[in-house]
Amino acid sequence: MPLLDKNTKVVVTLKDFGAIAVFIGSMLTIYFTLRADIAEAKLLPPPDITTEKFDYQVRATQENLKIIQEDIKEIKDVLHKLEERIYESK
Length: 90
What we know:
Blueprint: H1 14-43, H2 51-89
């Protein structure tokens, strides 16, 4: 026996109809807001980042990472020396 046939009765209450209307209204609002945002974005100038700028930023980030790694190594060395002094004094 199929779930829906020509004798199936569908009951929609006023509360259900209101929920459906709110849902459709929300989706339409989202749709038109996105369309407006896309239209505005099309008018904006393209970002001025070039391959050279991107490569420079990548290199700068890598250099900063190396400096941070060296700093961490120095901090670990100092911490190790302090631990040695603490345990030697006991």
